[in-house]
Amino acid sequence: MEIPFTVKPRPDTGLWNAKVGIWLFLASEVMLFGGLFSGYLFLRLGAGGEPDYFWPKDILSVPFGFVNTLILILSSVFVVVAWLQLKLRQFRKFQLWMYVVVACAFIFLINKGFEYRSKFIHYGIKLSDNSIVEGYKLDDTIIYEGIKDVTIDVARFNGQFLELIQWNIPKFFLLGSDGKPQGEAFDLSVDKVQEIEAEKNAKLKEKHEKSNQNKLAENSEADVIRWLPAMGIKQLSIVAEKEFSIKIKRKKLRKSFTDSAKFKDQTLLKGTISKLTPGVSIALVDRIDLRATDSENPELTSLVWKYLGNDSPLKDYNAKSETIKEGDQAEINFNKDYNKSADISDEHDPKAEAAKAKAIFLGAREEVLTIAKEKGKEAEFDKVLRHLVKKWESKDGTKKESHSPILVPWDEVKLYSNFTPKWNTFYAVYFTLTGLHGLHVFLGAIILLWFALFGKKLYDKDPEHLANRVEVGGLFWHFVDLVWIFLFPILYLM
Predict the structure, then answer these.
(1) DSSP string, 103-116
(2) If you ran DSSP here, which 8-state letter would residue 412 be given?
(3) How far is 87 from 91, CA to CA, in rounded Å?
(4) What is d(CA 23, CA 21) in angstroms, rounded to the nearest whole number?
(5) Rounded CA gap, 172 and 238, in Å?
(6) CA angle 338, 355, 313 (to 5 degrees)
(7) What is the rounded CA–CA span in Å between residue 214 and residue 83?
(8) Most buried one in 157, 221, 259, 489, CB count within 10 A?
(9) Four-CA torsion 13, 19, 20, 24, nearest 10 degrees
């Protein structure tokens, strides 16, 4: 049966075609988001507290999410007002209200962009004992020392590592087939590499063409291969006049080994990694989870305590140890002045905190909460749970609000990342759900904006037809708002 186009209600359904279509489309959207919500709820309820399956708590800003919820609810109201103005044949007022709706949509998206940004600038380090350190200003700088050999991919060479060489850039020699320096020393640059490549390719081409001529001289019908650029030099091996060191962010490298580093342009440096190289450093630590720490010996078993900076308010080294040599097992005494600027009665007890943290993160949350309630220390319990940093003063009187940097060797790091989907399951689900919803908000805003900007021609021709279109767009917008009303509590409040 042919379905004719009509903007008037059909006698068999009471609906016009576009409205039937949007309801069918929304039904498919309900199934999509319903499946995602169900998956999330099963994951959330099944998060039992094991170190690798711990579900983050209180990591999203509830006030922030609530503001965005109000924005979307108001935008739904404004869509209805715009549609009513259109039904009343007030096109200018319709345009005005529709612009307000679109403005609300983009304010929502901008706010969500700020929320996303906070996840990408906040870092977490998961240590090999499953403890976690969170904070800002991640520093994963590494230093390679004793470098002499350099292998260059001539097609992609950009000379980046030259900018990272510490002190003076040495001169270089070409390596011969025997592995020994040949020719005169030269200053390395992109232009120099291209010059050497051109010279070598010219010699190879000449040699190749001479070989072809010899073949043709012997046999005029012999098969010869024409010279192609792909037959030229792919790599150049050079050696420095003296050893040099580079200092570089790990993310700038494609691969890093114990004796070499490969840049993203395929340049390979051969040398040794400095023993003084810090692994991963978080400059502003604001959260610590003592997950698998032995409550009886936290100062011995927790890598957090082991690698926390010397000036941290959480610990102080034995006065006898004026300098801490790398690899030394220094005796740790926790600083009794930690709470000097806070409540004096709130004494910092690392063993008790470790015990509570272990109980919390390994599944005994309710038991700990019960004990806390019995002793009337719910607030204290909350501090332990969150591990929020208190304000403190350094020895020179400087007021601080975060722990001193924590530097962890690479062999003790299990994972480090921004709070992106790869960090844990929560963030994978969070970015999937909110990202998909954000895409719907953006597309819906574009459609409504199109009605406001280009709907005048259709309005002059058939106002009711435009009103029907706006109503269909409004139904989609109400659905987008409804999805967020479900997203907000399950992501931000559960």
Answers:
(1) HHHHHHHHHHHHHH
(2) G
(3) 9
(4) 5
(5) 6
(6) 15
(7) 85
(8) 157
(9) -150
CA 183 to CA 198: how far, in whole Å?
16
* Among 336, 278, 337, 340, residue whose Cα is nearest residue 309: 278
Give the span between the Cα atoms of 185 and 174, in whole angstroms: 8
Q: How far apart are CA 239 and CA 175, in angstroms?
A: 6
Listed residue (408, 384, 392) closest to 304, CA to CA: 408
Dihedral sign of CA atoms 227, 230, 231, 235 in order: positive
Helix, strand, coil content of the chain in percent (nearest 5): 50, 20, 30
The H or E element containing residue 252 is none
Q: What's this model's pTM, rounded to 2 decimal places?
A: 0.62
The 10 Å Cβ neighbour count of residue 327 is: 7
pLDDT (tens digit per residue) in 395-434:
677 776 677 778 887 778 888 888 888 877 788 888 989 9
Q: Tokens for 389?
A: 């940093």
Residues of the chain with CATH 1.20.120.80: 17-122+420-493
Fold of 17-122+420-493: Four Helix Bundle (Hemerythrin (Met), subunit A) (1.20.120)
User: Are 465 and 7 in contact, with CB atoms under 8 Å apart?
Assistant: yes
What is the Cα–Cα distance from 494 to 492, expressed in whole angstroms?
6
Place of tokens 């073949």: 215
Q: What pLDDT, in 10s, does the model give residues 191-248?
A: 999 999 999 999 998 998 888 888 888 888 788 888 887 888 889 999 999 999 888 8
